[in-house]
Write a structure and sequence with these properties.
This protein is α+β, with helices and mostly antiparallel strands. It folds into 4 domains: 6-84, Phosphorylase Kinase, domain 1 (2-Layer Sandwich), CATH 3.30.200.20; 91-322 and 331-337, Transferase(Phosphotransferase) domain 1 (Transferase(Phosphotransferase), domain 1, Orthogonal Bundle), CATH 1.10.510.10; 351-482, no CATH class; 487-593, Serine Threonine Protein Phosphatase 5, Tetratricopeptide repeat (Alpha Horseshoe). Helix content is 51%, strand content 9%. It contains 20 helices and 11 strands. It has helices at 45-60, 91-97, 101-120, 173-176, 183-199, 209-218, 232-238, 250-263, 282-289, 307-319, 358-366, 372-399, 411-421, 426-448, 452-465, 470-497, 509-519, 524-546, 550-563, 568-593; strands at residues 6-14, 18-25, 30-37, 69-75, 78-84, 123-124, 133-135, 141-143, 150-151, 165-166, 296-297. The strands form 4 sheets. The protein has a 5-stranded antiparallel β-sheet with strand order 1-2-3-5-4, with helices on one face. A two-stranded antiparallel sheet has the order 6-9. The protein has a two-stranded antiparallel sheet with strand order 7-8. Helix 13 runs antiparallel to helix 14 (426-448) and helix 16 runs antiparallel to helix 17 (509-519). The chain is flat. Mean pLDDT is 79; it is low at 153-163, 266-312 and 324-370.
């Protein structure tokens, strides 16, 4: 195989429609992953267009957790996509090695953010699975393989109907039934992955693909082991059979994870080590070792079923009833209501958290039989009792890390209600400050782990609780600065790889690194980047000097010294170029005298 501009080294992967090769992009001398459509699919224009559309979709989604596309094209009927080459392996390997629950949440959170980004842009992935989640060497997870992703029209409300596409083990019930789908189908697949990371095997496994599909439709949501019980509400929302019982979108799921981390903070001190699949027992090993089938297309012959059988099966699946009734909390909190935001707590038995008018009604009930002073005293006592109950419940929620969720049973709501009844209550004010401080600590912990997105969400929640907290306002500003620096460093790295050293204006490595140093003068990565730019200009200048092209060499030297004025290598090259170019310049000057 010969694709101009690329030197193919070896094949590193093969899927149902394409092979992936490690190649060197010769113009930039960098490794890339070259995905090439298998020749057997070239005769079908639909497959060819779908393949190229994958490249266009990914290229349109510029997100830190989505693989980067460099180029797509057709050469001598060979359809190819050139993309970022990553060496950190895929999630299949990581699951086999063992993933602890906090790392699992990191991965789900990152995938949730990039999926929401795609959903907002009108793209549903439809094949989210461990094999399609790769890792950079720094541990950053990347979503890849948008081969069956679907672009959605803005008027379709992110919902489409069509063929049944996807991998059976990660297929949502509505996807399996050929019903219209939206981004919540991707959330379901991510829930399957979460369970697999935590337990080491897939929740719905069977010997045949059809049996797997029926398990997705009918089997209950699996229970997590006791030491992971605090993650059951998250899993329940993600794996709900009906889309309306899942998170309304991936952003809501990410927010839920942030709150879950805060409530689960005590677990982080004593969480068990991740157990490799090989040590988890026969069931786990069997679940992990079963080869993941490639993405399937019902009706295209890939499953080897007749068209008539497929039609009958699709009809039966579409009519197959899902478990009836709304999702409810089980004994261990495995499933929660589809719309907890709209839930209303029943009145407490002692009336302490019931309607704000409860003490008033109680006082009114006694007004016919007691004197005015007695009525006032009774009202004050009941009011004080209600406030003390609210404060006690607020303290308990704070201790349990229920800071601002769930609704009606969190520390913030209890303290705010106490302040509504007693605006000067010092206990409630201290409680609100404690909530804000807790969010500040959680944000700082996420900063230390490099999760700036989660850190900012915690800071925002703290500011929602205490809008005038200067500590939180400064922390949010610092997080924003670090997010911007991270973005600039990524752009600078890409520009450096593309040899956009000092041009074009505002889109070159020098511009990005200089912006970083303006924001953080001690940033070592930016300083190293400036050094790298200078080295590249020095290398370019040396190449020109070797070819006796002195003016061009001097131009590279000037550009390099603009980046690093005191670079010793460039200063030495400047002197060398001047000496070598001097005779030529003298001849030029003499020639000018006689003209």
């Amino acid at each position: 195989m010969n694709i101009p501009g690329y030197r193919i080294e070896r094949r590193i992967g093969k899927g149902g429609m394409a092979s992936v090769y490690l190649a060197i992009q010769e113009s930039l001398d960098r490794p890339v992953a070259l995905k090439v459509l298998d020749a057997s699919f070239l005769e079908d224009p639909q497959f060819s267009e779908r393949f190229l559309d994958e490249g266009r979709i990914i290229a349109s989604l510029n997100h830190r957790n989505i693989i980067t596309i460099h180029d797509i094209g057709i050469v001598d009927s060979a359809h190819y996509i050139s993309m970022e080459y990553v060496e950190g392996g895929d999630l299949v390997r990581h699951i086999a090695e063992g993933v602890d629950w906090e790392h699992a949440l990191d991965i789900v959170e990152a995938m949730g953010e990039c999926l929401h980004f795609g959903h907002e842009a009108g793209v549903v992935h439809r094949d989210v699975k461990p094999a399609n989640i790769l890792f950079r060497t720094d541990g950053t997870p990347l979503l890849t393989d948008f081969g069956i992703a679907k672009r959605l029209r803005a008027t379709s409300d992110l919902t489409v109907a069509g063929s049944v596409l996807g991998t059976p083990s990660y297929l949502s019930p509505e996807q399996a039934q050929g019903k219209p789908i939206d981004g919540r189908a991707d959330i379901y697949a991510l829930g399957v992955i979460l369970y697999e990371m935590l337990v080491g095997e897939r929740p719905y496994d069977a010997d045949t693909d059809i049996a797997i599909i029926f398990r997705h439709l009918q089997d209950p949501i699996p229970k997590l082991p006791r030491d992971l019980k605090h993650l059951q509400p998250l899993l329940g929302r993600m794996l709900a059979k009906r889309p309306k019982d899942r998170f309304r979108n991936a952003a809501a799921m990410v927010d839920f994870i942030c709150d879950l981390r805060s409530r689960s903070a005590p677990h982080t001190m004593t969480r068990p080590m991740a157990i490799p699949v090989s040590a988890r027992g026969p069931g786990a090993e069997r679940g992990a070792r079963r080869r993941l089938p490639p993405a399937r297309l019902w009706g295209a012959g890939i499953w080897g079923l007749s068209v008539l059988a497929l039609a009958a099966l699709s009809f039966r699946l579409a009519l197959w009833p899902l478990p009836n009734g709304p999702s409810t909390d089980s004994a261990d909190g495995s499933v929660v209501s589809a719309e907890p935001e709209a839930a209303v707590s029943p009145p407490a038995s002692d009336g302490s958290a019931a309607s704000p008018d409860e003490p008033t009604r109680a006082a009114a009930a006694t007004s016919r039989s007691v004197s005015k002073p007695a009525r006032q005293r009774s009202w004050r006592e009941q009011r004080e009792k209600a406030i003390q109950s609210l404060l006690a419940r607020g303290d308990a929620a704070l201790e349990a890390e229920r800071l601002t969720v769930p609704e009606h049973d969190n520390a913030y709501d209890h303290y705010r209600e106490a302040l509504r009844r007693d605006p000067d209550n010092a206990h409630a004010e201290r409680g609100l400050r404690a909530i804000a401080r807790r969010y500040e600590i959680l944000a700082e912990q996420q900063i230390a782990r490099g999760n700036l997105g989660a850190a900012r969400r915690y800071a925002e929640r703290g500011i929602d609780v205490q809008p005038l907290s200067q500590d939180l306002i400064r922390l949010r500003a610092e997080i924003d600065k670090q997010i911007e620096i991270r973005k600039l460093l990524r752009l600078a790295k890409e520009a450096l790889a593309d040899y956009r050293l000092t041009t074009p204006a505002t889109r070159n490595a020098y511009f990005y690194y200089r912006r970083v140093l303006q924001m953080d003068p001690n940033n070592q990565r930016a300083s190293d980047g400036m050094e790298a730019i200078a080295r590249r200009y020095a290398a370019l200048a040396e190449g020109e000097l070797a070819q006796y092209r002195y003016p061009k060499a001097q131009r590279y030297i000037r550009l390099g010294l603009k980046v690093q004025p005191n670079n010793k290598r460039l200063l030495a090259l400047k002197e060398e170029a001047q000496l070598k170019n001097a005779p030529k310049q003298i001849l030029k000057d003499l020639k000018g005298l006689f003209e």
